[in-house]
Design a protein that fits this description.
By secondary structure, the protein is an alpha+beta fold. The chain is built from 8 helices and 22 strands. The protein has helices at about 15-25, 60-80, 100-110, 125, 150-165, 205-210, 290-305, 350-365; strands spanning about 5-10, 30-35, 50-55, 85-90, 90-95, 115-120, 135-140, 145-150, 165-170, 175-180, 185, 190-200, 215, 220-230, 245, 255-260, 270-275, 275-280, 305-320, 330, 340, 385. Helix 1 (about 15-25) links the parallel strand 1 and strand 2. Helix 1 (about 15-25) runs parallel beside helix 5 (about 150-165) and helix 1 crosses helix 8 (about 350-365). It is globular, with a radius of gyration of 21 Å. InterPro entries: FAD-dep_OxRdtase (IPR006076), FAD/NAD-bd_sf (IPR036188), MTOX (IPR045170).
């Protein structure tokens, strides 16, 4: 089927970032087409699963400040659609008290007046039962952090986009992109034209950017999403106000370990290592490295006495990492009407509403609401390959 309809904008990739971009464009009365290569909903990318952490606790001011508006935009979507997308649990941040990383979190939150509670070794177990705080570790709680219901959020924003007149075409893989004042996008099922194009293709970003002569320094990793069984059901339950948590570094690793209270699988707590092994997104399951699970087992045995230190369920997700773990939000260096969001590095879901707003602004040629210098491609210099 070939369509001769010309759109104001085409968005490629119906994960959280693309769906929010399309929704923001439709709110601005732009005729928008959202393309997705797989049948929706699916578990092939980075936006599936039932839960994600939402937090203001960050090492960098710019993320903490962006989250301020982001919380408001999530609430706005909840009101518009009449659904609950967020549950406040708090986020426990732990790490060596005098380490750079832990102090960056603490200082950034204090500087930005993020509501928080500092815990001490004396009162820790009173506030956070059934967790062992390592000797010398500091602990604080980002009070307004919590859990986003991810699958529900994605379905909701796509539904709102369609209510605003937006068109979603799934099971349409993009086969070619021809730049110009009007961009032409060819798919497995048709040809579409638009005044502007936004690419939010997650792990497939570079495969699509190759059509327009650009390659970014992105590494796709497969993440093992692990669920751990409670010895006594309800010990770490969301209903009992158990918080999400983030360990900045510990005895097992200098990388982040994070977790969410038991919710989607009754009696199972999600605890993951914030790094994986490189993979090809089209052959994700060929990557079978489980070395991260050994790290998590040792961590669970040391810090979570109420969990069986063997994962009960292991699922998969993909991260698309940039060298500095900051996002890519920019226009094509030669075609200003082609915009892309990429490299969300395993921490982008919570930012969906604000990323959508920013990519919408870029695609309309407007001055973005935030300083995008941390996210521009010029920071990579020699790492960006252009075939132009």
């Amino acid at each position: 089927m070939s369509s001769e309809v010309e759109y104001d904008c085409i968005v490629i990739g119906a994960g959280v970032q693309g769906s929010f971009t399309a929704y923001q464009l439709a709110k601005r009365n732009k005729k928008t087409l959202l393309l997705e290569q797989f049948v929706l909903p699916h578990t092939r990318g980075s936006s599936h699963g039932q839960t994600r952490i939402i937090r203001k606790a960050y090492e960098q001011d710019f993320y903490t400040q962006m989250m301020d508006e982001c919380y408001k935009l999530w609430s706005q979507l909840e009101r518009e659609a009449g659904v609950t997308l967020y549950r406040q649990t708090g986020l426990l941040v732990m790490g060596p008290e005098h380490s750079d990383s832990y102090l960056l979190y603490k200082n950034t939150m204090e500087r930005n007046n993020v509501p928080m509670v500092i815990l001490t070794p004396e009162n820790f177990s009173q506030h956070i039962p059934n967790v062992i705080l390592a000797e010398g570790d500091g602990a604080l709680v980002d009070i307004n952090a919590g859990v986003l219901y991810a699958d529900r959020a994605l379905k909701t924003v796509q539904g709102q986009f369609q209510k605003l007149g937006g068109v979603i075409r799934d099971k349409e893989k993009v086969t070619d992109i021809t730049p110009g004042p009007v961009v032409t996008v060819s798919t497995s099922a048709g040809v579409y034209r638009a005044k502007s194009l936004v690419i939010t293709a997650g792990p497939w970003a570079n495969k699509l950017l190759a059509h327009i002569g650009l390659q970014l320094p992105l590494e796709v990793q497969k993440i093992n999403v692990c669920y751990w069984e409670e010895k006594v059901p309800g010990t770490y339950d969301m209903k009992k106000r158990f918080p999400c948590f983030l360990l900045t570094e510990g005895e097992e690793s200098d990388r982040h370990i994070y977790g969410l209270p038991s919710n989607e699988y009754p009696g199972l707590v999600k605890i993951c290592y914030h790094i994986g092994s490189e993979t090809d997104p089209d052959h994700r399951d060929k990557q079978t490295d489980r070395s991260d699970i050994g790290i998590l087992q040792r961590f669970v045995a040391r810090c979570f006495p109420g969990l069986i230190p063997e994962p009960a369920v292991v699922e998969s997700c993909m991260y698309t990492l940039t060298p500095d773990s900051h996002f890519v939000l920019d226009c094509h260096p030669a075609y200003s009407n082609i915009v892309f969001g990429a490299g969300f590095s395993g921490h982008g879901f919570k930012f969906g509403p604000i990323i959508g707003k920013l990519l919408c602004e870029l695609s309309l040629g407007e001055v973005p609401s935030y300083d995008l210098s941390p996210f521009r491609i010029r920071r990579f210099q020699g790492n960006t390959k252009s075939a132009l």
